[in-house]
Amino acid sequence: MSPAPHNPNISVDCVVFGFDQDELKVLLIEQTRGPKEKVVIQYALPGDLLFKNEGLDDAAERVLYDLASLKGIYLKQFHTFGDIDRLHAAKDQEWLQTFREDPKARVITVAYYSLVKMDEYEPQAASFAGKAEWVNIEEVPSLAFDHDAILSMGLERLREELETKNIGFELLPKKFTLSQLQRLYEIILAKKLDKRNFRKKLKNMSAIKPLSEKQKGVLHKPAQLFTYKDD
Amino acid sequence: MSPAPHNPNISVDCVVFGFDQDELKVLLIEQTRGPKEKVVIQYALPGDLLFKNEGLDDAAERVLYDLASLKGIYLKQFHTFGDIDRLHAAKDQEWLQTFREDPKARVITVAYYSLVKMDEYEPQAASFAGKAEWVNIEEVPSLAFDHDAILSMGLERLREELETKNIGFELLPKKFTLSQLQRLYEIILAKKLDKRNFRKKLKNMSAIKPLSEKQKGVLHKPAQLFTYKDD
DNA sequence: GTACTTAGTGTACTAAATACACTAATTAAT
DNA sequence: ATTAATTAGTGTATTTAGTACACTAAGTAC
Predict the structure, then answer these.
(1) pLDDT at A119
(2) Nearest nucleotide (CA of B219 to C1')
(3) Residue B224, CB, less than 7 Å from strand D?
(4) Residue A58 CA, nucleotide C20 C1', distance (Å)
(5) What homologous superfamily does CATH list for B9-164?
(6) Distance in angstroms (rounded) separating the CA atoms of residues B219 and A139
(7) Which of residues 119-148 of B touch strand D (CB under 7 A)?
(8) pLDDT (tens digit per residue) in A120-176
(9) How confident is the model at residue B40 (pLDDT cuts 50, 70, 90)?
């Protein structure tokens, strides 16, 4: 063990969840490489090195804004990853050399997870970064560095929070139907829920209130729209 | 906002809990200063800067071993504190100058909480550090830097874990009575529990098993001793 | 107006949490 | 040996939360 302290780089990485079309998605940055800048070599979580006069939460907000034009969204720190070799998987060596001065430099990353109302925000790639892309959680490829582990812990935390706190609405439009909310729970928790029991529980929690408005443009009985009470 | 990354120092700080004599205690390092090294100026959580070839968890283990001779104990990362000015409260300026080269240097700290069987380990101060001392959680003075906030979040997490996971035994001797376990819950959660309901719940969880041994040397009916099953 | 689709609703059963009071075993003092 | 003091140990009834389950209602497309 080395007897001297040192000064690693610090980054933040964000696991950004969205829900759309009955699918749980995560926002990934496409890292391209090659002569024509066309060959996709891998995907990574949105992240960046910490700036000098910036708090950790600030950095996470900045990352989401710069890389995906996301602003004012639910954001929560969940774990810090600091293994010595977390950047140095064989698959990442080549890529590291194209982007960083010193591929051996140590980087400790503080991970956040984040919930986005996909109807309100359409991520746009900043020009300097790779393209930001929503990827179905079921179809996420192997990611750069230890981002697989980060994503997987982020997903675990999302599930925990969803079962204990009322955060489901952070992933839905302001106005939503009870069936939408239920599908969200079913998909994230990967289990079927009973419609009547689900609604009974919601009623007891009284966290939502009905609007005087109904669903439109559907080819079946239109559902009552609800919204969250902030009380 | 500064447009350049930088390399702050990284430290780990540990919120170490112990339980003894019906009191929840936390391990603090006494920081002394002055001509005779006798004037106590403040207490701090055990912590140290991260070494070069050391993972975060390793650093936390090292800190506990070096500062308190604690080894092989329950240890869990819970939050990373990175405010720009977290070291720079007015009360800390003087002290910083005596210990660190640059009192303006930024330090980001990864916080752990830790559970200790106090009967097995008696902390001993390493010579180079301040004295390690168990302090009743109710009597903790204002700590150095932002350690008040770290302690307070650590305590919050201890309470959450105690209600959801079976971690109570980490704070008790290997052999314990049900009343001891109940008092531990009562004191940490700061609420009274019903004896019969508490025992009923334990029975259902079947996480403990009775030993063929009874409490000794008490001036009342001796209680059955139990131990945790690891199964 | 018929077929299709999803919305919306109540009741009976089961499991978990709560409220509650007395007897048993030991020590210390007399 | 008896008594006082102290904590250990035990069961039942009630309330609350969770589960299982099936039909009618409101709209669209044809």
Answers:
(1) 87
(2) C27
(3) yes
(4) 53
(5) Nucleoside Triphosphate Pyrophosphohydrolase (3.90.79.10)
(6) 65
(7) none
(8) 877 665 555 678 899 999 999 999 899 999 999 999 999 999 999 999 999 999 999
(9) low
Nearest to B7 among A9, A79, A82 (CB): A9
- Distance, in Å, from the CA atom of A15 to the CA atom of A21, rounded to the nearest integer, reads 19
Residue A81: closest CA among chain B residues belongs to which residue? Answer: B56
Nearest CA in chain B to A109: B80
Give the model's pLDDT for residue B87: 85
pLDDT in tens, B162-207: 999 999 999 999 999 999 999 999 999 999 999 999 999 999 998 9
> How many C-beta atoms surround the C-beta of residue A1 within 10 A?
9
Token pair in block for residue B35: 């001509």
> Which of B5, B82, B110 is nearest residue A55 as measured by Cβ atoms?
B82
Quote the CA–CA distance of A17 and A135 in Å, as a whole number. 10
CATH of A172-228, one of 1.10.3720.10, 3.40.1190.20, 1.10.10.10, 3.40.50.300: 1.10.10.10
Distance B210 CA to C29 C1' (A): 34
**Chain B environment of A53 (Cβ under 8 Å):** 1-2, 84
